[in-house]
Each structure stands twice: as structure tokens, then as C-alpha cells.
Design goal:
Helices cover about 75% and strands about 0% of the residues. It is elongated and about 55 Å long.
Length: about 140
């Protein structure tokens, strides 16, 4: 395969026509962030919730994060946007996600989460929204 064909294949793989790869990324990021936050919290290490609880509630957080990132217009790297817009939209999306998630959890599960779980989940979500998109923007700008 010639080098030009490999280059075109890589560019086609990196570009997402409708943003479905980023929606899936946002969902998986939310799920992972919630599960990692429970694993890293210093309290109740011996009494972690059941794995199905982590997957269900983490999945709810992931769905809310994916919807909020689209609602807040977190830019896809394929579209040329500034870093400021990426950071501002990601910050708004993570804040909105946690507010909606807290409301849902408080109304349905009648439960609140501690400051370590909140800070780890939101921090991991924020970094996970920004870093891959910034790297992809830099890679696509080089082309």
C-alpha cells in the first residue's frame, strides 16, 4: 500500500461524519469516570457497591454526559474551533451533567455522593472531554 493511501485511510478514520464516535466516547468516559471515582474514594473501600450498581448509575451519568456535551455544543475536532471554545463548552457540559445527575439521583435513588466522588468524577470527565479533542484538533491541523 502506498504511503499516500495510508495517509488517506488514517484521515478517514480520524474524521467522524456525524460525531457518533464522540458520542460513544462521551458515554464511555462518563461510565468510566463514575466507576473510577468509586474505586479511588478513600471511604468505604471494603464496602464498594455491587458492580451492577456501578454500571447502571455510571451508565446514567454517561448518557447524561453524552447528551449534555451535545447540548452545550462541545466542538468536534473535525470542525475548526478555538481552544477557548472547547474549554468553555466542556466546563459547561460537565457542570450541567453533574447538576442533572445530582437531581436524578436525589429524586430516584434518594442518595447523595461525597465530595471525593464528585470531584474525581467531574475532574475526570472534564479532562476526558478536553484532552482527546485537543489532541485530535492538533493532529488534524497538521494535515
Amino acid at each position: 500500500m502506498p504511503a499516500n493511501a495510508n495517509h488517506k485511510l488514517l484521515v478517514a478514520f480520524l474524521r467522524s461524519r456525524h460525531g457518533n464516535r464522540w458520542k460513544l466516547w462521551d458515554f464511555c468516559l462518563g461510565l468510566t469516570a463514575f466507576c473510577v471515582a468509586f474505586m479511588l474514594t478513600p471511604y468505604h473501600r471494603d464496602r464498594l457497591p455491587q458492580s451492577y450498581y456501578l454500571l447502571i448509575v455510571g451508565g446514567v451519568y454517561g448518557i447524561i454526559l453524552a447528551i449534555a456535551s451535545r447540548f452545550c455544543a462541545v466542538p468536534d475536532p473535525e470542525q475548526r474551533h478555538s481552544r477557548y471554545e472547547l474549554i468553555a463548552a466542556a466546563s459547561l457540559a460537565v457542570t450541567l451533567t453533574y447538576l442533572i445527575f445530582s437531581l436524578v439521583v436525589a429524586l430516584i435513588l434518594v442518595r447523595t455522593y461525597g465530595r471525593y466522588i464528585v470531584s474525581i468524577t467531574t475532574g475526570f470527565s472534564w479532562v476526558g472531554l478536553i484532552v482527546p479533542r485537543a489532541i485530535m484538533m492538533a493532529v488534524l491541523r497538521l494535515q
